[in-house]
Amino acid sequence: MSRCWDRGASLLSAALGVVAIAGVVMAEDKSAARNGRSVSAERSMPLEVAVEGPTAFESRQHHIGLTNWLLEETPVEVTDSAVRAQLSPEDIRSIEFPEVINGEPLKVGLVIPLDTAVQVNGLASSKNGTRGGVAREEGGVLSRTPDGGYVWALEVGSDGAGAIRLHVEKMSLPDNAELYFYSPAGEAYGPFTGVGPDGTGDMWTPSVFGSQGVLQLRLHGPVDERQLKDVSLSVTEIGHISRGVFGRPDEGGVASFCQYNASCIQNTNCVNEAAVSNAENAVAKMLWVKGCCIYTCSGGLIADTDTGTQIPYFLTANHCLSTSSTNLEAFFHYQVSCGTSSCTGTFTDPPSNLISGKTVGATIMATGSAGDFSLFQLTQNPPAGSVFLGWNNSAIAFTDGAELHRISHPSGAPQSYSHGTVDTSAPTCQGWPRGNRIYSRDDIGGTEGGSSGSPIVNAAGEIVGQLTGACGFNLNDVCDHASNATVDGAFAFYFSSVEPFLDPGGGCVPSAEVCNDGIDNDCDNLTDCNDPDCSGSPSCSCLPVGSACVNNSDCCSNKCRGPAGNKTCR
What we know:
- The chain is built from seven helices and 33 strands.
- The chain has helices spanning 7-34, 56-73, 89-96, 225-229, 256-259, 352-356, 491-502; strands at 2-3, 44-45, 48-49, 83-85, 106-121, 134-137, 140-144, 150-158, 163-172, 177-183, 187-192, 203-204, 208-209, 212-219, 232-241, 266-267, 283-290, 293-301, 313-316, 325-332, 358-368, 373-378, 387-388, 391-392, 403-408, 416-422, 437-444, 455-457, 463-472, 484-490, 548-549, 560-561, 567-569.
- The strands form six sheets. Strands 4, 6, 7, 8, 10, 11 and 14 form a seven-stranded mixed β-sheet that branches. It has a six-stranded antiparallel beta barrel with strand order 25-26-27-30-29-28.
């Protein structure tokens, strides 16, 4: 959750009052009309219940069955040469008790480069002897299988981790090869084939709970020498995720909700509130890798007006994540019963809903910093029974006393509840003008780092915004609601940007593109630096068409195409 406070700017805003701020919003609307962009009519959308994803039982059975099969094929000698990474006590403390930094998501993990990367450049059957024999091969263990195939396995770990994931690079596998990552505790992911999920040969595995996991390659037989030589992959980094992100930093395994949240944070299952009964099945805890670190935020499923399909659209904050991510994990239905005694568990036996309710991967649809929003389409369907929340594009930023409700994951805790009302007299933070942001005062519960991006809903349970952060005089105390206001990006402000996805029949009238305003002015489903029309803007960090690139996110068009090592933005 990002927080900002500029005392001078905020006091000046308070002195000028609502009229001056409202004038800015009105001027923007008039400018838009002159440019030919119609102001969207007030519309709303009811919720939908997901029907296409797996049930919790189906997902759990899948993990158990896949884990058991992998365990049967894993050479027992794999533990003899495990690859381990180790963080310093200072690094561990930095993610177990992370600092909340303005404008950034909460950091809950670190990426550890391996001192010596595990590199597989072909496998050699001659090292393996007869069927059933075992040989050390490229850092792992290679074994024959009864069908004339092979299993290569590598155990990896990071002491003190609550969960781990692996960075696999230069992945290129023959057609009969499948890569898996699993934990013997009963969590397994794969198969990953060819050159990986996004076709680049570069991927982060999904995370598994605990401090160790097994990367396992299965070549289905019969296998010839050429197929063995065609196997290529490197394990270069381990992602170490804190124990505190799903439980206490010590061995007790008590969820952080019970011990380390602020005193005002409320377990959602201890609150009976109809407005958020559906939000509990829509909100997810997010985890993703970017650069050096692993971060967490909150977000929620959102419905579109096409009742003939169920596209897994997911809304969160721009300051959390604003580009497509094949490694984004969304954990749905992460709840605990009311009362601290029920918040127990161990990292070798995590709550089943943390496994059965997880999706991996997301593609950015629209994003903007002015309204601090990002709309994604999840790569996988959310669990059956999840809810796509309805929405309402009516402006409420200037509706004093409007009721607001929220479900979020503060500090990575299980779902928590907060309630507040719009406060039009709350001083504003510089860069967060009222109108494109909603200022409110909480009176029940609260938010912390990790809550960012969580949808805020009105009394009818419809999304009207998502969390940016807090603004006030005493930000070190998240329970001081008199001194601090809660700030959300206003759905009404950026609705025209998400309208092509959420209300495709609603119509969009194009106008001249305005770079970096967070609005899809020209109706091409792209905004700001993602828009080729803005590729020349000096504030854009993306690359224009024709530039050399590596990933889609490098390009303003989000299209990096061509052979490996020679791709260009298209």
